[in-house]
Amino acid sequence: MPSSVSLGPCLFLDGPSFDASVFRVSDAAALAYNGASRGGVYQGPNRLDVAAASGLNLTVGPGTAIVPSAAGTTDGAYRVANNQTRTVSVGTPDSVNPRIDLVVAGVQDNGDGTSAGFVQVVAGTPAPSPSPPSPPSNTIALYRVLVGANVLSITSANLTDVRAFQVAPGGVLPVSAASAAPAGVDGQYGYEAANDRLFHIAGSGPRQARVLPWAPKVNHNSGNVVNTGSETTVLTLSITTDGSTDIEIWAKWRGIFVSSAGGNDMRAIMIIRIGSTQVSDLAVYNPFNDGTSRGGGVLLHRTSSVVGDTPSAGTHTIKWSFTEVYAGSLHVVVDGGPSSPLLLVARPVVL
To answer: What is the pTM of this model?
Structure first.
């Protein structure tokens, strides 16, 4: 027989009594990427910025953060808000060694009217090469503070920003580096400020964002291609299109020549076909038949619905070939080499 399992009270139901964890779990799921598993500061003009003030004082600016519950993801997360600039102080510096303190934002959940959010400085342990303390339960780290021995004041140079940021599901998550991105979910994107780039935080890990329907296709040849006396294929490649996306095709060669010097110039025509249909050609000329490669170039073609050559849906073969118009009694050679290979490229056009 069919069965059901109660999930307990839902938000906005009339009648039931609610445990606050219901709100924390729901709030984290709606407002936090990766739900309650990852805390962070919300983006915006106010981001809990920490700055050096007078003496050993620091200021913590306004902002909002998600703080995961130390009881685990099933207990949700807390939303902590600071609505004005607050002042906190580091403790008395050690007389011998430096230490690293930690500015954190968190919540004290006592289950009664004394519960509250807070920002505070957590003191580290003095040492010749100090390490920062771990954030206490129900807190997230904002800044590290290097407190030198016997110092009388803290400067901006002593502050290191260690904030993790947070966005609602589907938002773009700022990170210090792609390698520092948290565990991903397909469809989540991140922004790496240091290199000003967008990337996909996929379930398999960070990867380049893809906006094209398919990746560009490339084929190459590091040798020469000799005409056979009729139309001769240089390179081919296969693409699969959706019937509405135009493509850009280009072929690149270093030059043309004939294998033996003579008294005649040489001419060839480069041809691009999609399937059996010729879509573009280009005449190439080398005025001196002295064995030297000349007449290099690029043949570029972009399909268009205006011209009527947008590829239909399906798989197509792109072919670059050439014919020799005149080369005396010899055959034209299309010149390629390890340092300048023959290239055939097809890529989708993005509007």
So the answer is: 0.65
